[in-house]
Amino acid sequence: MKDQHTYAPELKGLKVAFIGNQDCNAYRVCKWGRKLGVEGHLFHCPEKYSKLRSLPELIDPEIKGNYPSWITVLDSHRHDDVFGLRPDLVEHINNTFNAIVTSGEWGVREVQHFDKLPLFHLSIGGDIGVIPWQDWRSFENRIDQYRQRIYQASLHRYKAIFTSNRKTMAKLSKINLGDRPFPWAPPEDVASNKHRANKVVKANLDSKYKDTKRVFMWLSRLLMDSTHFGNKKTDIFIKAFSSFVKQNPDYPIRTVMVSHGPSKDKVYDLCQRLEVGHLIDWVPHLPYTELLAYLSFPKAVIFDDFSHTNDQLSGIGRDALSVGGVIVKSIDRKWTEYLYGPDCPVLHADTVDECLQHMYALNNDDYFSQKQKESKLWANTYLDYPLNTKKFFKRIQQEL
Fold first, then answer.
1. In the chain, what are the domains?
2. Which pLDDT score is estimated for 74?
């Protein structure tokens, strides 16, 4: 039975194959599309996605070992990394669906096998904003050179490239793609996220920090060096936290930080040099339900990314807002309003001083409570999936 609150009869008959699943975004959009009435199917090759965050069970732990019928798990030994999907699967997709959406680097390279169906790409992170611009001749391995040339050639095959990154759109506009770069606001399942936070983790956090007034959290990967994929400037957060502690040595505060990322060694060293290491609790990469428990912790303030290169609403930002979390990061308000709606409650900061100012302000209980209420209201109004997911599939319908 269809959920009458989300079902979109105008999308009935739309059959979409999702190939690839970078950071579980294809899985989520496919699942949400099915709630709207779209016949979506995910073709997922776990071995192409070694990172935990690209496995569907990260989002929905109950499906581990028992995927629903609309997910096909591909064996990498039967679907070669160079020559791509087997011909019988390509034929099946061509005969069953009326559109294809790719996700991630592996998904993009598969478009070479399809010439009968309209192609679309769900861009997240640096897959479209970074990889196509790398010179294929810089790769030493011939296979890597071949993959890169396929990737670059594939861009012109798409009817639309969905992205929330305005800088990615600016780059794509330079290579004669016309109106194919399509600004799209990735949503969240706000109603469900409120109930899926891991209850055991929530209870542990309540106990562990019962005598702490605020818990500052950095749950994005540790990155304080410029790379192809940007620079989150984790050091700004650490320096601001250090200043706060030195100015308030007796204040009951802790910080939680993830222990993974390209700059983890430099981050550890900086924490020791600034003498705040003893106030930091390190956690591993968190499964989604555990991440939601941290983000929804009533005493938490989330700090995410202070770089101008990543000033759109990030994954951590969307997750935090969906559960009423308070978040501090660099944000382009005009672009965020264009994508989602006005009055996004994210607190902007891109310097140590701005970050420190928010740390002080959010220790006022009335102000902190007000920001939590604003996050919940904004998420319910602009972030929940039915509205933006409909926009996604209606754009696909335009090409049929």
1. 9-187+385-397 (3.40.50.2000), 190-383 (3.40.50.2000)
2. 82
